[in-house]
């Protein structure tokens, strides 16, 4: 791919957050007349869909154009490409831990989890890491095999645990940061991009519980402080439906008895709570904190469907089987490539392909590049560096100089004091040895 100069794509419609949001941010439709409104990504209704740069279905058909070394990427989340990712990690509950992928269902098959599994290859097992390996074959953190989080090696960065909820995310975040910093020096970690997929909410939805916004924000804060370069993709509860009635979540049955017992209005409110909470966490990171190398992208529901939706789940449990995990990987990947306007309504998961990065914006499509996307060649970047004068170093003040050299000053003063005491003590001692009369002896005639 040849790019002669910088290209900036400006979209006419503005992406709104926080105080800029319209009063009604959630689009409520009822496409299949079941009495339950459809939830789309309401905050993204004004975003123009991007044109994908191609597609692939297996390793032999992979033909996504490489942007490196022609383009300069990876300075910020807004210019982060799949080729920049060097580390993958996962947090969350049973789905991310890989439950339901082996018999018996409660075994955690982390090596096959859609979020971080690395067993087999892309042709044999569709996971996010196996797709990323087509772009960069030097990938750390991938999970292999079966077992709990404590049973697998520390160089595998899957912190998910079965039945974990949003309230468990701060502890998982601490363990992930500890494991990452234990595997490499901080100065090395600071130069590597981490893609973290956090899948939460299914267990809580099945128990009719609202999410804990404070715990999720706390976890994000721990990650932000401990992982300098990270894109966190927060994936909400799974929504499995028939292709003919995509708004009806089949988990509202024997898989989630509590959801079957609630009224439609209660179910809608619970879904809305999750939708609004995840977007609020995302908006806080973007609008209020402005960390260029740390970003959060919320996918409020993991929407997958099939003409035979029962073939995607583990009977009697809110878990996806191997086919369901492959659909989940396709949904998350294509959302990352195409942005929030990726439409699953007409998607045939069993037939449709995996997207390549957009031609006009060859990065992960996140809220930081929905409105505009700047492409810079490596040649232009090097020219920019050559023409940018080095920042002048201001002369430090006396107070700053003293603060920087406080230790040296203390040592010097202490050394001078010791020398002074030693010299004066020696003088007085020698003078005392030469004296013929003691200080308090009586002198005749006085």
Automatic annotation (TrEMBL):
Keywords from the UniProt entry: Membrane, Transmembrane, Transmembrane helix
Domain of life of the organism encoding this protein: Eukaryota
Ranges annotated as spanning the membrane: 406-430
Any one GO BP annotation for this protein: phospholipid metabolic process
A GO term, aspect molecular function: phospholipase activity
InterPro entries found in the cross-reference section: GDSL (IPR001087), PLB1 (IPR038885)
Name this protein carries in UniProt: Uncharacterized protein
Lineage: Eukaryota, Metazoa, Ecdysozoa, Nematoda, Chromadorea
